[in-house]
Structure formats: structure tokens, C-alpha cells
Amino acid sequence: MSELTSTNWSETAGSNNQPTPNGWPEGQPPSTINDCAREMMSALKRWWNRDHASANVTVGGTANAITLAYSQPPAALVQGEKFAFKASAKNTGPVTVQVGTLAATNLYKPSPTGPIPLTGGEISVGQTIETVYDGTQFVLMSGLAAPVIDVSYLGRLPTIANNTGTPATNIDILPGAALDSTGTVLMKLGSTITKVVNSSGIWTAGSGGNGLDTGARTNSTWYHVFAIRKDSDGSVDGLFSLSATAPTMPAGYTYFRWIGAIKVDASGILKLFKQVRSRFYFKDTQQDQLGVTVNVASSSLLAVSAPPGIQTEVLFRATINASTSAGIFFTSPDENDQTTGASGLEDLVVTSSGASTFAAGRFSVRTDTLGNIRARAVTSSVLLWTGIYGWDAPNLV
To answer: CA separation (Å) from 33 to 26, 39, 138, 233?
Structure first.
């Protein structure tokens, strides 16, 4: 049976001289002409039925495992061949397509980085789907429906919290939806999962599994939290990493999204916190500076309780003490290291009549990627106390 994709069909007219009925050889008997014509009509009709979403293809299977049945199915898939059909169900995850009795083949969709698996919602009931076989898998050519997201997820990224039962070592990742770090794939977590900041063992999938990408829980250490997506079925899991941008991904996982950070204290216990959108509030104020001297002549970089590897807005209370009129101002390391001998730039000012005087206030300052802010005294050196009560991650919103 000849096909338009067969090698015995040629773009060069004179080469279409195969023996009948697969060609039109020179000097062929008149009785064979009708056989050649019928073979051409049959090949064209088979091509039309596959290329168009006609009633001549029977769509079956399931939403994520589609079958296409033809009265004359192809003997093999050929690179560049197109198949079209009218969808009978909405997909909920990755999809395969089986043509006739051939092996089921993955159906992918285009992306800036090349074809990727479907995640759910790309195919809807009654939609005309056109696909092309690229030599490895089918790729959607048209009919891409916008991913459908439950309205309860709109504007809500996955959030994190200390697990209520085991807050010292376990982190809950709450439901939400987000694009991955490349903006390519939608990741939706439908129910809360719990991950262990493990003291031994390797990362394991699923709720209750170990969460660290490598190594074991270490005292006095920040870990970044990621939502990660499984390639095969689009399910979402959690991962903890020392890296803020390049976690070591488990086998079978490609896409990830940073969703927060957690701190293990000097005793190996997770700091308790409360997340409100992009802000993370410590349950107990972190006292980072205790009577530190800040001078006029040179600024001081102050290490604060904020995750390294990213820049955040650290939220803190500050108190200064001086025995003479003095002040202090805080700047981000992103700003120039400003010097002044005059008032006007101070965040806090003390005015003394001879006795030691204190001043206090609340502040928000952008850190560098090492978790530092800058401080400089005005007029005279001061003693500084800071209490960090939280930090904000603007990149989350």
C-alpha cells in the first residue's frame, strides 16, 4: 500500500516510474492504469483523513492517553507527518497519542526551550487539535488552550510554614500556583505537603519525605525553599537548598520556583516564623547587634537575620545610645557609602544634656546578597542594638 510519505513517491515526475500500482512505468498495459489511479486516490484520501479532524478518525482512549483509529492506519510514524482530531476530553496532565496499533507516543507543546510535556488544560472538549510528529514525539501545532487555573489559586503562590506537629524539623508547603523560574511551566500544588529538613538520608518524593537536595541539616544555616515539578506527571513537590538560584534537582525533575527561605538555629532547630504574602515574620525577635559601636569616620556593614543569596528588605527595630548629641543612618549596600558631618540624614537622633540618652525606631532596609545592611554615625559615634523581626522578598509578588 503506497503512502504520500513513501519513498517511492518522488517530487521528480520522471522518477515516479515504479511498477504498478505504486507508480506509472513507461509502456504500462492499459489494464493497469485504473489500478494506479485508484491507488493514488486511496493514498490521497488516507492523507486527508489523518491531516484533517474529520469524521473518518475515531478518537478514543482517555483524556491523557488518546487513541486515533483509522480504517487504514499508517504502518509507521514518519517525521513531519501531521495528525488532526477533535478532542473528546480535557487533559489533566501529560498526554500520549496512539495512532492505530502503533506505540503510544508523547504529545508535547512548544516552549522557548523546545518541546515540553503538557501539564493540564491545554486540550479542551470539542477542540480541534493539530499535531506533527517530529521524529521523537508529537508536538501541538495549534489549538493550545490557555491553562485553566482554579480561581481560588489566582494571585496565590505556594506558601510555607512550620509544621504544627513537628515545627522544629518539618516545613509545610501550602497550596498555590506559580510559573517556574524560567516562566515556561505552570506549577500548581493542590494540597499541603510536608517536607523534613533531614539530618540524614537523601531527598525523597512526597509529603513526609526528606527535603534537602544534598547534605544534612546543619546548625546556624539558611536553606532556600523551592517548589519543583515532576517531568512525567506534572506533580509538585518541595526541595530545600543552600543555593538561592541553582538547587540540585532530583532525577526526573527539571522546573523549579523559589518560594521562601528557612533558618536552622545554633541548636539545630528551625526558627519559628509566619509568612504573610511576601513577608516572613520571626515569632521571636532576632537580636543581631548588641551594643555595637558605629563610627562617623567609616561605615559599618551589619550582618542581619535575612537569607543570603538573595536581596531582601530586612525589617528591624534599632536603638542607639550616646553620651552626647549624635545620630545614625542606615543605607542599603546598593546605595553609595554616604558621609556627612551635618544633621539631616539621620534615621535616629539623640540629644543629650550630659547624661546617656537613648533613641529607638523601626526600619526597613534592603540587604545585599550576603545579608548585610550599612550603618554610619552622624556627629559622634553611637552604640547600636538591633532586633530583626522579619524580612520581605519582593520577588515573590
So the answer is: 11, 10, 37, 53
